[in-house]
Write a structure and sequence with these properties.
The protein is an alpha/beta fold. Helix content is 47%, strand content 12%.
Length: 335
């Protein structure tokens, strides 16, 4: 067999032409044979067959299934490392993920291709290198490139995190109720974090009692209150704790999860709120939680925030402030 005949035989086996099923691993085994022989410098030694090579490099069979020979200076050499390199070349470097991953099986089948080796041992360096290059080129052209294309990914920004970090909740447009944007943010947070519940939003400054609610934001499962939050867009101090007594009592009666969500807390305030059986959350606490959310959940929170701003608060100044913010961070340019 000459170099072209050996290559053609590999291609037929690779594709499964004729009898038998495809043996794609031969696309790595043939160049591994060539590399193995180049490393043993067989082209310079005039071998006529593999048996001739075994006279200088005795074959080892005990405990091994792949082509393994003893080296004159001691130690042994196997075709496996060369095969591993082509295996990695195809799969790792060139993303031909349809190439088989059964390295021990592939190199263990070397005996089926002894006739290739009988031809290869007598070939020149150039012929062996030609077979290597032609084999690699064939496999790369035959198997589909499954490289991941980063340009196919639409980058979704952490928009609710940006809102918490960069939006000015303290500013107010003309006629904008105090704390309206902050309350809308809390609604967005709860709505995205508890999509299994029905979450009620009220206009800021409406008062939960007047609207037959428990807190400023209530989340229900049917007729059962599950979460209720009082929203305070200021730093809560110890002197404010008394105003939470009725809220605490209502939460306790309904066995619900109660939260006070504030801009921040003064010394001792968190502990006193906790003693009422309520959970204190600051804007920075929510920011920390939201930082762990995936971008789609963040988008859901923003959508809920915008819904309150547009459909509940219905304040044109606040709507404009939100739109200006979304433009400023480049969000509306992509949505």
């Amino acid at each position: 067999m000459d170099k072209q005949q050996v290559l053609d035989a590999m291609i037929r086996d690779f594709r499964g032409e004729g009898a038998g099923k495809p043996r794609k691993y031969v696309g790595g085994l043939l160049p591994a044979f060539c590399e193995f022989l180049l490393e043993l410098e067989s082209p310079q030694k005039g071998y006529q067959s593999l048996s001739d090579l075994f006279l200088d490099y005795p074959q080892l069979t005990e405990g091994v299934s792949t082509l393994t020979v003893a080296l004159p200076a001691g130690g042994q050499k196997t075709v496996r490392p060369a095969y591993e390199r082509y295996h990695d070349l195809y799969i790792v470097e060139h993303h031909r993920l349809d190439y088989p991953r059964s390295q021990p099986y592939a190199t263990g089948k070397w005996g089926d291709y002894r006739h290739w080796l009988d031809a290869l041992v007598g070939m020149s360096d150039d012929d062996l290198r030609w077979i290597i290059a032609a084999s690699v080129a064939f496999v790369l052209s035959e198997l589909k490139d499954q490289s991941f294309d980063p340009s196919s990914v639409r980058v979704e920004p952490p928009i609710f995190k940006w809102l918490l970090e960069k939006f000015d909740f303290g500013a107010r447009a003309k006629g904008e109720p105090t704390g309206a944007a902050f309350q809308a943010m809390v609604f967005g947070y709860i709505r995205a974090d508890a999509p299994h519940l029905q979450v009620e939003a009220r206009k800021a400054r409406a008062g939960s009692a007047r609207t037959k609610g428990i807190g400023d934001i209530d989340a229900w499962e049917g007729d059962k209150l599950v979460i209720s939050a009082e929203v305070k867009h200021f730093t809560v101090s110890e002197k404010d704790i008394g105003s939470f007594a009725h809220f605490s009592s209502s939460i306790s009666e309904r066995a619900a999860l109660g939260m006070i969500v504030a801009e921040n807390y003064g010394q001792g305030a968190r502990e006193l709120i906790g003693s009422l059986g309520i959970h204190p959350l600051s804007r920075m606490d929510i920011l920390h939680i939201v930082s762990l959310w995936d971008p789609l959940k963040q988008r859901a929170a923003l959508n809920a925030f915008q819904w309150v701003v547009v459909h509940k608060e219905q304040n044109s100044g606040l709507i404009e402030r939100v739109n200006d913010f979304l433009h400023s961070v480049g969000y509306l340019n992509h949505h």
